[in-house]
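Milestone M4 deliverable, item 7.
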Amino acid sequence: PPPPPPPPPPQAAFCRMSSETACSAAGEQQGAMRDALLPGCDARTLREAPADGSADAGGVAGATPGCFKRACACLGAVLLDLLTVLFLVIAAPLLLVLLGPFLLAPLFDRLFHPRREYLDGVSSAWANLMPDAVIHGLFISEEPVKAETIFGKFQENYLAPGKSVFARFRQRFVVRGCLWPYWTDAEMEVAHHFRTVEEPVDQQGLQVAIAKLQSQELDFERPPWEMWHYENFTDENGRACSATLLRIHHSMADGCTLMRVLMQAASPNKPPEGVADSRPDRRKRPNCCQMLRYWLTAMRKLIFMGDDKPSAFKSSSYINIEDPKVVAWSTVQCASVADLKVIGKGLGGATINDILLAALTGAMRRHAEATPGGGLASDLTACSWVSLCPLKHIYTDFSEKPLKWGNSTLGCVYLKFPLGARHRELKSRETLQHLQSMTKDPALMVEAKAAVDLLSFFGWLPKVIAKVFFTPLTNTTSLSMSNVPGPQFALEWCGVPVRGMQFFMPPSGTISMFATIATWNGKVNVGLGMDGSLIDQEGLQKICGEHFEAELRALGSKVVGQREEGLQKICGEHFEAELRALGSKVVGQP
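Output delivered:
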C-alpha cells in the first residue's frame, strides 16, 4: 500500500485552528446580532421552523409572541420619543406665547426692583403652591437640657447682629398673585419663634404632637420657622433626655443647604480623620449623544407619566393643611450603617440607598398584605428627592464655598415601587434586584435635573395660573421620600450632645405619604408621615419598625448564609481536596 501522507506542518495546523476559531467567532457575532434583533428567538427555534412557513409548537410560534411584543415595545418607545419632541417643539412654544403677557409682568417687576432678593424657581413653587411644605427636624439629646441653654446657643450662632450670612432667619417671603415672591426683612418676636414644652412626653406622645404641628400653617407674616423644645422627653428605651424640633419652610433651604447651615452650630463640624465624608463618584460621564438620549427618556417619562390610583398608601381625596396626619419613627436595631455596607457588598455591590429602598418597599408590602383589602392592583410611584451636590459640601467652609440659600441643589427622580399584583410574590432579594435595575439607569442623572426644572417652571409662573396645572400633575405620585445622610460621627449641636436626628415632611395635596430615612453616627432612623384617614399610629409604627427590620434581616440572612456556606467549603470540601492531593503523591511512589 502507498505510504501514509506526511502530517501537515505546524503552520497548516495553526491556520486550520485559526479558521475554526474565526468561524466560531463569526457564529457568535451572528448570534449576538440575532439576539439583538430578535430577542427570545434562538438558532434552534429558527432551524426547527417548517419550510412552508407554518409554525408548530416547538418552532417560531413559541418565540413569535415574545419577539412581537418586544418589537411593539421598541416601536412604542420610538413613537413616544417623537411625541415628546413634537410637544417640546410645538406645544411648549405655543404655551409660552399664550402665557407671554403673564410672564412679562414679573420680568418688568424685576427690572423695576433690581435690589429685591427674589426666590429661585423651586423655592417659589414651595411658597406659592405648597405652604405646608415644612421641614420638621428633630434632634434627640443625650441627657435632659433646659430650653434656655439651647435657645441661647441658637440665637448666638444664627441671630447675632454680626451673623449676616444667616440673615435669612430674620426675613419673610412676600407672596403675590401674578408676580414672583421675594424676601424682605421682618420683625423677630422671641416668644413666637421659641416654644418650650415642660410637660413629660414619651415617643408616642411626641409623635402625636408633631402630627398636630404638621396640620398647623406657619405664620408667613413672620420669618417662616419655629423652634420647639421638649425638656422632659423619654425615648423608646425609657431613657430620660430632651428633644428639639426645628420647623422651617422648604422655601428657605433644601436638605443639603439646611445641613450646611446646621453644621455651623456643631462641634466638631467636620468629619474626623479616617471618617469618609463622601464616596467617590464612579459613574462614567456620558457623551453628547448619550445626554440627548437620556434627556429624551427623562422628558418622555415626565410628560406621559400616568396617575396613581387610590390605594392603601394614596388617599382618594385632596389633603388639606388642617386634615389629620400621623407621624412615626424608629431607630433600626438589627443593622448599622457599617452592617448595611457589608450586606450590600455580599449582595453584589448594592448601595445603602438600594438596600433601604428595598426594605421600605418590603415593609409597605407587608402592611398591605396584612390590611383587609389593602393589596395594590398596580405598582406605586415614588418621588425620590436627591442632592445634586456632593456630600462633602455639607462640611465645606463658607470661605471656600459661599452659602447659597434656596433649593439650587435639589433633584428629583421617579421610581416605581414593585407593590402591584404582578409583583406580589417578590422576595426581599428579588425586590432589591428590581429596584437596582431602576436606580442604575444612567438616565436618572438627567431626570433628576429635568424634574426640578419642571417644578421651577411652575414656580416662575404666576400663582393663579400655576395652581391650575400643578395639582393634577402631582396626582402621579403616592409617596414622596428622601434619604438624608447625616454626620457619621458624634457631635454637639448648639452646645448639646446629640444622640439622634430625624426629619419629617407632612403629606400634602395628592401625595399621601412621606418617608425620610436618615443616617446619623452609624445608626439608621426611619421616619414616616401619612394621611390620618389611611392608617393609624400603630400601623405606621409597624411599617417603620417591625416590618422594616424584618426586611433588613431577610436581606442580611442571605449574606450570612453565603458566608457560612463558604466557610463550610473551606473546612470541608477544600481541606479534603488538599489532603487527597498530598496523599496521591505518596501512593504514586514505590
